[in-house]
Design brief:
By secondary structure, the protein is of the alpha+beta class. The protein has two domains: 139 residues, no CATH class; 78 residues, Alpha-Beta Plaits (2-Layer Sandwich). Helix content is 55%, strand content 19%. A four-stranded antiparallel sheet has the order 4-5-3-6, covered by helices on one side. A two-stranded antiparallel ribbon has the order 1-2. The termini are far apart.
Length: 226
Amino acid sequence: MISQLEIVLRLVLAAGLGSVIGIERERLSWAAGLRTHMLVSVGAALIMIVSAFGFADILGSPNVTLDPSRVAAQVVSGIGFLGAGSILLRGEVVRGLTTAASVWVVAGVGLAVGGGMYTAAIAATAIVLVILAGLKPLERRYFAARRNCGVRLMAVRGAVKLATLEHALGAGAGRIVRFVVELDEVRPDVEQIQIAFSRMSDREFGAIRARLQQLSGVSDLHDLAP
């Protein structure tokens, strides 16, 4: 059994490491921020301590064995409800996956601290911080230039079909990931057409958009919100 001071120090260290990751999420105003990450880390550390040392007084009893990993394993699966709560669907874009992953990792950091694996916990925290904060500028530089694009067309009924798009766009037709046609509620001879494309640069999207505007029967064209 570890000392009471050691228990307190482990919980404090878990809170500190959780706060380091939480501050980065709080900076971006995510729902799971500083306090959430600290609580998850401290809670995981406490559960690990209880799992490893909380049943020491009954180990000498007949037919009693101890597996410290059993209680700790429930943290890894059970923490999913917090991660799910931080994932939001805004229109057609899913946000919060990174924050959900950071909450899950913080639980692992807490377990490591609770188990006395200080080096692993500190190293994991440093790596997570580099991933969250350090790779963000690189991600924006190399990947933000390409984005999901889409348009909404107003066209004469039957004027725009997949075959028409394939002929007009050529190789660009291979970028189509969704093609939805709906009749206009007010004008039955007009169709509302939504076309979503895979990730592409603004230049590529501009060229496709110009070809769509030149299609016969198209009266209006608007970009879909990313």
